[in-house]
């Protein structure tokens, strides 16, 4: 009996040591929270899952695209950038990967970050022939400009945004002026959002620049127009994205590659936690709805993460093992 008891105690001790070793392997981990909602909630989601599911000690640190990716490429810090917009800083990311400081994990936005021209779904339903920018430019009468009802209007972002430059160039390339359209400068992010909200609440026509994932597209159902041509990378670099280029050609807007980047030092010791980071991915539709809920409820990133975990078990339980899933559920 004493021998049996001793072996049971030893087995329990070994199991405890194994759990402690697993937690020790994960250890302290820093997670970059960028200054926009989708990145904030992703960082908090990783914190909850890594701490409750894998025994890590996670700390969220404030970040932004350029400083975070620079620090990871040069110093291997922070440990995780959940939502790194790789397409915006390809050379920085390449330097980190090739220099052995950074490892690529899952593409967190499985369908990529999306930019382009959008119309409300009720306009798309009423006018099924409008599927592309060339289709749009056949119908200035359907999108009257605020200051001149005889012209059609395309609403642009504020000055200084890359998306504003590309929208201006696509407008030129597709003959917007000749089609009797005008570009409307909305002046600010709030002005752009306000123009959409005003149109949508009144079921009025609207077309213009926007992007996903965003809470606004989680609240208002919009349809992205096609471009009528395939993406041409050389033309994009030559002119589509260059403000003072005088002769832009029609082009498509590529989806941005948005990926989770992990420091090599953390990846090497993370064990099963790295399996999670290699699987964790969601779509723009999922994120749009989540951050719309956050905006409506003035919720923090932590609130959003816990709301997502409670409401989307069918999705996130595929990212982790059954025993880890039970630990996470118990923590909520």
Q: Name the strands of the widest sheet in spatial order.
A: 3-10-4
The end-to-end distance, rounded to whole angstroms, is 40 Å
What's the shape?
globular
**Helix proportion range:** 40-55%
| Overall mean pLDDT | 91
Q: Tell me the number of strands.
A: 10
| Main beta-sheet annotation | 3 strands, antiparallel
The helix-strand sequence is: HEHEHEHEEHHEHEHEHEHEHHHHHH
Cα gyration radius (Å): 24 Å
Q: Which stretches are poorly predicted, pLDDT < 50 over at least 5 residues?
A: 1-24
Q: Strand-residue fraction? A: 15-25%
What structural category do the secondary elements indicate? alpha/beta
Number of helical segments with 4 or more residues: 16
Offer a quick outline of the entry:
This protein has 332 residues and is α/β, with parallel strands linked by helices. 49% of the residues lie in helices and 16% in strands.
Commentary on this structure:
This protein is of the alpha/beta class. The protein is 49% helix and 16% strand. The protein has 16 helices and 10 strands. A 3-stranded antiparallel beta sheet has the order 3-10-4. It has a 3-stranded antiparallel beta sheet with strand order 8-5-9. A two-stranded parallel sheet has the order 1-2. α2 crosses α14 (301-311), α3 (65-75) runs parallel beside α4 and α13 crosses α14 (301-311).
Annotate the secondary structure layout.
Blueprint: H1 2-26, E1 28-33, H2 37-54, E2 57-62, H3 65-75, E3 80-85, H4 90-98, E4 102-104, E5 114-120, H5 121-126, H6 133-136, E6 152-156, H7 162-173, E7 181-185, H8 189-201, E8 208-212, H9 215-219, E9 222-224, H10 233-240, E10 258-263, H11 264-269, H12 272-279, H13 284-296, H14 301-311, H15 313-316, H16 322-331
Parallel strand pairs: 1-2, 6-7
Antiparallel strand pairs: 3-10, 4-10, 5-8, 5-9
Helix pairs in contact: 2-14, 2-16, 3-4, 13-14
